[in-house]
Amino acid sequence: MRVSTTQAFGSGINSIQDIYSDLLRTQEQVSSGKRVLTPSDDPVAATRILNLQEDNALISRYRDNITLANNNLSEEESILTSVLTAVQRLEELTIQAGDGALTNEDREAIALESQQIYEQLVSLGNSQNARGEYLFAGSQANIQPFQLQPDGSVVYVGDASEREVEIAGGNYVSIRDSGFDVFQHIDNSHRIASSSNSTVGYYIGAGNLADEQAFDNYYDQFTAVAMPQTTTLTMSDNRDAADPNFPDVPLDFTFAYIQPDGTGPIASTNINYLNADTYATDGFLEVEVDMTAEMGQVYTLYLPVDENGFVVGAGGATTTEFSIDRQETQGLMATAYALTQLLQQPAEESAANQHLSDRLGAILDNLDNAGRNLDTVSARIGARMNVLESTDYLHEDSEIYNAEALANIEDIDFAKALSDLSLQETILQAAQQSYVRVTSLSLFDRLG
Amino acid sequence: MSLINIALSGLNVAQTSLATTSHNITNANTEGYSRQRTEQATQQPNFTGAGYIGAGARITGIDRLYNDFINEELRLAGQDLQQSQAYLSQASQLDSLLASTNTSLTTSLESFFASLSTASEDPQSPATRQLVLSEADGLADRYNLLYQQINDQNSYINNQAEALVSQINQLVTSIADLNDSVAAAFSNGRQPNDLIDRRDQAIRDLSELVGVTTSPQTDGTVNLFIGTGQPLVVGGDVTLLETTRSLDANFQLSIIQPRSGTDITSVISGGQLGGLLTYQQELVVPSLNELGRLALVTADAINQQQAQGLDLEGNFGVNIFDDINTSAAMVNRVTADTANNGDALLQIAVTDTSLLTASDYTLRVTGGNYEIVRLDDSSVVDSGSIPLPATISLPSEGIEIQLTAGAVADGDGFMLSPTRRSAELISMVLNEPTQLAFAAPLRAITSLDNRGEITISQPEIITPLDTNTQPLVSAGGATPFDLIYDETGGFWQISNVPVGYSVSPANLAFTPGVNNSLTFTIDDGLGNAVDVTMDISGRPQNGDAISVDFNSDGVADNRNVLAMVELQTADLIRSSSAVTGPNQGLVDSYGQLVETVGVVTAQKKIETEANQDIFQQAFDNREEISGVNLDEEAANLIRFEQAYSAASQVIAIARQLFDRILEL
Questions:
Q1: Which chain A residues in 167-206 lie under 8 Å from chain B, judged by CB atoms?
Q2: Would you say the C-alpha torsion B504, B506, B509, B512 has a positive or negative sign?
Q3: Which of A42, A51, A165 lies closest to B120 in CB terms?
Q4: CA distance A365 to A91
Q5: Using the beta-carbon criterion (under 8 Å), do B117 and A220 form an inter-chain contact?
Q6: Closest chain B residue to A441 measured between Cα atoms?
Q7: Residues B449, A141: C-beta atoms closer than 8 Å
Q8: The pLDDT value given to residue B250
Q9: Between β-strands B36-42 and A318-326, what pairing exists: parallel, antiparallel or unpaired?
């Protein structure tokens, strides 16, 4: 083959340049540790790298969220533990206060502690985090959720919103419970709130829910009536006031009720005088109005007796009204408040004392409900934290897998790259030397 | 006597051969030079009785060693190599621009959505809100930067194209001149070796700039044609090229032949110009369009989601990014042909970013009809007769063409680029962090007086809200209202709706014990309606109530920011005009662009390497025949010098013979 001089020089230079550019590229790969430097180096790998990197970014974001969620939930959990301790103490106090041997002073001492716990509960309900957010206010975290009223009670002004964060694609976990769920949405075990309008000191107990179905059926009729859907129980004292022996006359009370929609009075006939024979000694008459058939409740009335053992009251068909409001839930704060209020009332007479025990029983039931609700919320938090933990493990696995995949696709094999590098270096040196040799050959040098 | 003459003829031949060899040696490095060789033959012999006596040697010609086929191969190889090199050098820049972490859109998108995700955990913190704004600004800047870089590259290509055209014109002129000279020399019956080399080299140089086809003529001239046969050089006659503004003003130039007025831009291929123009057409324009579409989709999706929520003050969110249909932006999407006769002013409103394509469109008026063509697949998307309607709605393309003034006339043309400049125009306009709308507008709560046990989700508004529908779900709007359960009917009844509003259906059927997704419509009686959905499960009892209210003071609510985060992976974009709805997320779409550019660049790399080899082979082939080998010439020098010395010796002998006679 004929070779021109230009060719001899040119091809030598070309091959040196080729080797040099290969060498540079290997050097670039070694210094960056990456095999794929631009997408065009390997478009398919580049797309996978992009996907893996996005996946990694998402995972690290989810893991950040999981850490934050854990912090939030732990914070809530520790507050709920304090709340639960407070509720348990309230339960102890309630049982203690039910002791009939306590004097008013003893009860007042208990009331003082109860008041303090109540205040503690309110401040727990109004807990703020480091950023000043009210944790239990739902979405209105700038507004104190449990607001103190002039009479010392509190109202909840927050809402039922929770806050969720994303912990995996499309997978959200709630990191905060609302005060509504934690403190407010607690079943009232008796489902009613009763009160007496008596001017002579007749008391009505907290009621006794005997038949839920009958209760529901009764109220099914009044869905159109605005809350509190008051049923008015009327008691007529029919003792003959004109009898010269009055009040030493036979007991004669009749009961009727006016339905929430105003219908009535409807006679209610099922009445028991529970301790009619003993009232002279224990100082009160207990009357049971059994309205199980009508509205699923049995009411107990505590009527004081005078020093001679007769039920106080004017007789002659005087009427006393008792209001029975439907109340399905009672917030923890309201229960604690009710307990404090109750304990602060003096109970000089037996009827009042008995009524107090009745009420304390109802409060204890509601405190139980509050405790159970707290347990539920705590269990939910625990479950969420479990989910967080397992999801975090999954993410960790994915991260490891992605890192491996990325390394396989993107990273260079250093051993191979370095050996390539030294091979290319050797070839380059050889090419340079041979170039110098070949090009220095010229016939002209031999021309004498 | 004849002895001296014979010797003289030998001296002449040797001298000429030495001159040719020297010519070869001195031109060893001249580009395009083909080595030459003297051809010698015997002189006419003298006839004597004894026979023919030789009369010496003579030069019959000086030949140029070449092979037309190999020369043409080299020219074409140079043409292809220059094209792929020009393409590759631009494409590699775009390739690393789109994928580098410092310039890639992916990193900015990721940072922006990560800041939103951080904000979802702590929606009312000023710090996280400020971070969202900074990242939004960074995202807009990244779009602007990418646009700027690609646009700079485009301007470079246009400048380069202008420079190339003027070089082409110079070369074309000098080739025509050389053609003339060659033709003149040919008429003398002799091949002008060096002239032909110079012209062939000029044609090779031209081919490196732009692809041409050659047609050798019998008179020694070569005719050149460009594109699909448009004449460039015919004999000594030239047709020059000129650059001019295209319909796609400011983006691509048109290459025309002013003599005939033909636009040959689309048929140019080969050479640097071909490479640049193909690159511009294949990657620059689609990349800018795709980026623009992504910018539009980003701005629109974020703005829409922002309008769906409440800020810290309880107001509906205002735009984070500049509105996609500002009048400046709408006007920018249309360029009118400078030669238009009509005075129509058109603009384009983007009506649905999820249906946008990354294609450009043309609107041309011919014979009293207009026709709108989508350029990526050349399909006609709309046509009709003029006058043009005030608005041409193209719902399946997500755009609306508006005639703001004037009228079109026959022969008018408009370039419609709905997305082209959007990546340049995107900017963040929200400066107040508290105005980020992270909360949802409605909240619901179950009544504490409920007898049944139910679980509800917070209400979700599924209608995209705008300034007309926002008041419906604002404070003082259609809220609060209640859902009250009717056990016998088995439905939730919507009650207590404020005066002037209605909610339908009034009764929402409910199956107890399972999860029910209930959807209802709030209407203001003025033609504005909002659809709301809510999940309710459990076993409610008669009269149980759920109250829905405006989310006043809902500063800690993060439902809307969660919805914003979801936009990162949501399907917002059509992958091609062949699919009817959005099927791709932002990052995927950008990934597709990166991949396309990567694939094309990789192809061009391989192509360039192949072309390099082909060129090298063709170069070697030519060198093998036409290249000068100095060793060979050195040998020739010695050979011809010896021939010269030998001939001189003959003269010396002749003189001695003559002297001998004189001595007698």
A1: 169-170, 172, 175, 180, 184-185
A2: positive
A3: A165
A4: 9
A5: no
A6: B631
A7: no
A8: 65
A9: unpaired
Angle at B551 between CA B548 and CA B552, to 5 degrees: 130
Handedness of CA A419, A422, A426, A427 (dihedral sign): positive
Give yes or no for a contact between B10 and B55, defined as CB atoms under 8 angstroms apart.
no
CB contact under 8 A, B624 and A69: no
Please state whether the predicted TM-score (pTM) of the whole model is above 0.90.
no
Q: What is the spatial distance between Cα B381 and Cα B390, in angstroms, rounded to a whole number?
A: 17
A57 inside 8 A of chain B by CB = yes
Provide CB contacts within 8 A for B622, sequence distance 6+. Answer: B67, B70, B71, B74
DSSP for A8-46, written as a single string:
HHHHHHHHHHHHHHHHHHHHHHHHHTBS-SSGGG-HHHH
CA distance A186 to A373: 7
Select the residue of B122, B451, B591 nearest A216 (Cβ to Cβ).
B451
Give the closest residue to A178 by CA, choosing from B479, B161, B557.
B557
Looking at beta carbons, which residues of chain A come within 8 Å of B630? 5, 442-444
Q: How many distinct helices (H) and strands (E) make up chain A?
A: 10, 14
Question: How many Cβ atoms from other residues are within 10 Å of residue B445's Cβ?
Answer: 22
Contact A196, A203 (CB under 8 A): yes
Mean pLDDT, rounded, of chain B: 90
**Closest chain B residue to A217, measured at CA:** B542
- Minimum-distance CB partner of A39 among B122, B594, B624: B594
A282-320: pLDDT as tens digits? 778 888 899 998 889 999 988 888 877 788 888 888 899
Check B623 against A3: CB less than 8 A apart.
yes
CA angle B348, B351, B357 (to 5 degrees): 80
Q: How far apart are CA B277 and CA B157, in angstroms?
A: 8
Q: Which of A54, A143, A442 sits opposite B631 (nearest CB)?
A: A442
Confidence (pLDDT) at A368: 94
Residue B109's closest chain A neighbor by CA? Answer: A54
The rounded distance, in Å, linking the Cα atoms of B637 and B649 is 18
Question: Residue B121 and residue B125: Cα distance in Å, rounded?
Answer: 10
Amino acid at B622: R
* Strand locations in B43-191 (E): 46-48, 51-53, 57-64
Q: Which residue of B has its CA nearest to A3?
A: B624
A289 burial level (CB within 10 Å; 0-12, 13-18, 19+): buried
Number of helices followed by number of strands (H, E) in chain B: 12, 29
Helix (H) or strand (E) run with residue B545 in it: strand B545-550
What is the rounded CA–CA span in Å between residue A352 and residue B281? Answer: 96
DSSP for B310-379 reads B-TTSPBPPPSBPPTT-HHHHHHTEEE-TT--S--EEEEEE--GGG--S--EEEEEETTEEEEEETTTTE
Residues β-bridged to residue B492: B485, B508
A-chain CB neighbours of B569 within 8 Å are 169
Q: Alpha helices of B378-484 — where are they, by DSSP H?
A: 422-425
Q: In the structure encoding, which two tokens stand for residue B191, read together? A: 């091949």
Residues of A in contact with B450 (CB under 8 A): 328
Q: How far apart are CA B91 and CA B83, in angstroms?
A: 12
Residue A143 distance to chain B (closest CA, Å) = 8
ipTM of the complex: 0.84
Shortest CA distance to B549 belongs to which of A286, A5, A139, A402?
A139
- Cα separation, A219 vs A212, in Å, equals 11
**Residue ranges of A 104-143 with Cβ closer than 8 A to chain B:** 131, 133, 137-143
pLDDT band at B341 (very low <50, low <70, confident <90, very high): confident
* Cβ A406 vs Cβ A52: under 8 Å: yes
